[in-house]
Amino acid sequence: MSQALLIVDYTNDFVATKGSLTAGKPAQAIEQRVVALAEEFRARKDFVYLPTDLHVENDPYHPETKLFPPHNRLNTWGREYYGELQTWFLQHQAEQNVTAFPKRRYSSFAGTPLDQWLRERNVRDVTIIGVCTDICVLHTAIDAYNLGYNITICQDAVATFNPDGQKFALAHFKNTLGAKVI
Q1: Which whole number is the average pLDDT over 37-53?
Q2: Which of 57, 107, 116, 170 would bridge 70 by S-S if both were Cys, CB 3.0 to 4.6 A apart?
Q3: Number of domains the chain contains
Q4: Is residue 58 within 8 Å of residue 70, measured between CB atoms?
């Protein structure tokens, strides 16, 4: 049975110092681990998915427009993957087990083909990493739980701009969603 790694929103806007909605140093500190996990999953022929926010500036129909500054806009530096993940992705994006796709909500499952792809590939186990732990990673994990997936969260490969949110989300993954937090 295959496994999948979900690298959620690890982009310049969420990670780089000059990103428009950056988690800053905590997100930058996980870069090596994010890339190492991507390579580990890819090398063993498991699936690596990169669900990535895609927004339109001042979109009156999107609820995040009222909550956050513009971020992850199409064809911008901010939407590119941060640091070495961008290089890794460009090297491997043509491989069948590496797929990036846009998402428009916090959860990587909401309005995307992710669940269908996982089921077609007989994936039951998902490992979720990226940013922000208490927002998009959390909502992705909640949907994964509700869809019946076995969830692993790599504590050293998730980050957010809110230390209290980080603590809450890690406890929620383990105590409420039954996720394996390693």
Answers
A1: 97
A2: 57
A3: 1
A4: yes
Range of the domain at 7: 3-181
Query: Residue 45 half-sphere exposure, CB side, CA atoms within 13 Å?
Result: 3
Contact 145, 115 (CB under 8 A): no
Give the phi and the psi of residue 109 in degrees, each rounded to 5.
-95, -25
CATH number where 99 lies: 3.40.50.850
Q: Are strands 47-53 and 180-181 parallel, antiparallel or unpaired?
A: unpaired
| 72, 53 contact by CB (below 8 A) | yes
Reply yes or no on whether the pLDDT at 7 is more than 80: yes
180 C-beta neighbours (distance < 10 Å), count:
14
The helix/strand/coil state of 113 is coil
pTM given for the model: 0.96
Dihedrals phi, psi of 131, to nearest 5 degrees: -135, 160
